[in-house]
């Protein structure tokens, strides 16, 4: 039995200068392993005391992340410079230059609505369970087990696909740089790409085996490097490209090679580039237990990082379209990296290698941070008994203070899902698609619950009167793009051109269903419910009593 905190009699709320209340006294924490730990809230940091008293979780991570490192982490998840390199071919195939420019502007607005909605929820419920945890606060009690179960498994699929597709993109960039350095004599094959991908994923696992202290130091410097590379590359391309396209071509040329008619429908497939780049918004939520003042810093970082990605991505796409030359030529590049070919054509061998390697470094930071978030997700889900062998994945290494087993099972899953690329490159495209679909739906389910059941209690960061409309558009937009991302991007459809995103989605839902009926429904009642203590309260008009003892209605 895993119970919520049990508050010792005589505890009383202490009021902070910012109006929040904190319990003082002793709380018993019952861990997934069945151990009971009595902790003194007065000896904890504010964030740890909130986690223990309000959310019923035992603080196990060190809170090393501040404003800069949290913002840098959120920016690194998008990896703008490198993720555009990875996905620029999608809008070019779909509708040419106009698709690359306008799909970013249109789809980015929808993605911003999702990001702001996620930030609002993260502020209210800052735990490493992310949006999965919010189901326990937003949905009716009887619906919590099934909704949180599905949300958790879909989110896990999206995160695994996100890391896997990023690692595949990293392998492509590294091999492209090697090929350019060899004057294109080095032949790139699918087998080589998969092999390099596996090695790079193991490297990501090794980096994530370090302590949170070193992860924070690495992350803090990343955003400065990223911005410098992005700005210098844009300036270099505009200065060195001799035969630029006209503005008319950049903003109006529509040229589809997908086989879909009318061309306007094919144009919509360009939405994948921005939806894949501007996703994984809740990755920052998964490290909130490693952030000081997470209810403020995490949503601020999510909103600001996505706004930066939206605006800078739109401008950088315009630069690429002005400087790309003949799109058919770069799409047919022997190095299978159209943007790396563009750099070579405009900046020469040295410039091409330099910015391709910069793209590789940046996307590896994407992988490092995304794997950190994925490992924390596996830990958080296991803490509630959502995954098989949960007791294994909740182990925290005594030296590094990180969930090493959770990290390395994530590494294995990411390598395995990419092995499908040995059979078909189209299957790899499906990994990119399912990343955007699964992650967005794991966000939308809690947002729909927020809209329907009116149980939401805002945190310090919220949108006020604009919240409803932003949430509503986030839901409408996600439903719309999901239909597009499940369709085959090329016609006529054959085994090697099919969109396998639907296969991945059905597979993970089937696995979650089987595990639910075999074991899950016997014990799983959702994330740990709130302890009714005098914990933090973002709404001063609805204080919680300080001297109540409750048990969480859940078994693990």
Keywords:
556 residues, mainly alpha, 3-stranded antiparallel sheet, two-stranded antiparallel ribbon, disordered N terminus, disordered C terminus
Terminal CA distance: 6 Å
Shape: globular
Instruction: Calculate Rg over CA atoms.
Output: 23 Å
The secondary structure category is mainly alpha
Total number of beta strands: 5
Please, what is the oligomeric state?
single chain
**Major beta-sheet overview:** 3 strands, antiparallel
Average predicted confidence as pLDDT: 81
Major sheet: order of its strands? 1-4-5
Which stretches are poorly predicted, pLDDT < 50 over at least 5 residues?
A: 1-27, 39-45, 47-60, 530-556
- SSE order: EEEEEHHHHHHHHHHHHHHHHHHHH
Fraction of helical residues: 55-70%
Number of helices: 20
Share of β-strand residues: under 5%
Structural account:
The structure is a single chain. The chain is mainly alpha-helical and 556 residues long. 62% of the residues lie in helices and 4% in strands. The protein is built from 20 helices and five strands. The strands form two sheets. Strands 1-4-5 form a three-stranded antiparallel sheet, with no helix packed on it. The chain has a two-stranded antiparallel ribbon with strand order 2-3. Strand 2 and strand 3 (21-24) form a beta hairpin. The protein starts with 5 loop residues before the first strand and ends in a 33-residue tail after the last helix.
């Amino acid at each position: 039995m895993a119970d919520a905190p049990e508050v010792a009699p005589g505890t009383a709320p202490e009021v902070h200068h910012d109006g929040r209340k904190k319990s003082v006294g002793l709380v018993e924490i019952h861990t997934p392993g069945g151990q009971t730990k009595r902790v003194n809230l007065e000896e904890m940091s504010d964030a740890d005391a909130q986690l223990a008293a309000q959310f019923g979780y035992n603080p196990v991570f060190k809170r090393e992340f501040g404003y800069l490192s949290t913002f840098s982490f959120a920016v690194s998840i998008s990896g703008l410079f490198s993720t555009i390199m990875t996905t620029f071919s999608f809008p070019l195939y779909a509708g040419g230059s106009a698709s690359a420019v306008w799909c970013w502007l249109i789809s980015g607005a929808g993605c911003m609505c999702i990001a702001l909605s996620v930030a609002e929820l993260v502020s209210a419920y800052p735990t490493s369970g992310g949006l999965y945890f919010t189901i326990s606060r937003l949905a009716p009690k009887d619906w919590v087990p099934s909704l949180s179960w599905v949300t958790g498994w879909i989110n896990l699929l999206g995160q695994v696909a996100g890391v896997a597709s990023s690692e595949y993109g990293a392998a492509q960039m590294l091999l492209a740089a090697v090929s350019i350095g060899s004057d294109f004599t080095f032949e790139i094959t699918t087998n080589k790409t998969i092999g390099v991908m596996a090695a790079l994923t193991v490297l990501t696992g090794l980096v994530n085996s370090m302590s949170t202290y070193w992860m924070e130091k690495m992350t803090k410097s990343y955003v400065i490097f990223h911005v410098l590379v992005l700005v210098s590359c844009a300036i270099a391309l505009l200065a060195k490209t001799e035969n630029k396209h006209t503005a008319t071509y950049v903003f109006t040329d529509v040229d589809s090679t997908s086989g879909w008619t009318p061309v306007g429908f094919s144009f919509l497939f360009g939405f994948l580039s921005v939806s894949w780049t501007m996703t994984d918004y809740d990755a920052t939520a998964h490290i909130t237990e490693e952030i000081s003042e997470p209810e403020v810093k995490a949503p601020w970082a999510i909103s600001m990082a996505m706004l930066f990605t939206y605006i800078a991505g739109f401008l950088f796409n315009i630069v690429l379209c002005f400087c790309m030359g003949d799109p058919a030529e770069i799409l047919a590049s022997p190095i299978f990296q159209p943007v790396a070919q563009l750099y070579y054509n405009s900046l020469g061998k040295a410039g091409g290698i330099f910015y391709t390697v910069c793209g590789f470094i940046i996307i590896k930071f994407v992988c490092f941070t995304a794997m950190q978030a994925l490992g924390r997700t596996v830990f958080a889900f296991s803490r509630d008994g959502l995954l098989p062998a949960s007791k294994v994945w909740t182990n925290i290494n005594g030296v590094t203070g990180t969930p090493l087993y959770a990290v390395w099972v994530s590494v294995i899953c990411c390598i395995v899902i990419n092995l499908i690329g040995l059979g078909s490159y189209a299957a790899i495209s499906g990994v990119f698609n399912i990343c955007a679909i699964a992650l967005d739906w794991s966000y939308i389910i809690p947002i729909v619950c927020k809209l329907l059941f009116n149980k939401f209690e805002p945190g310090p960061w919220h949108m006020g009167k604009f919240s409803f409309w932003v949430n509503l558009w986030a839901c409408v937009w996600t439903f719309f793009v999901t239909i597009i991302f499940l369709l085959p991007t090329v016609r006529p459809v054959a085994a090697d051109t099919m969109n396998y995103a639907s296969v991945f989605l059905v597979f993970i839902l089937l696995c979650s269903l089987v595990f639910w009926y075999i074991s899950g429904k016997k014990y799983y009642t959702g994330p740990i419910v709130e302890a009714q203590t005098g914990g933090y309260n973002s709404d001063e008009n609805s204080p919680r009593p300080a001297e109540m003892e409750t048990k969480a209605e859940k078994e693990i």
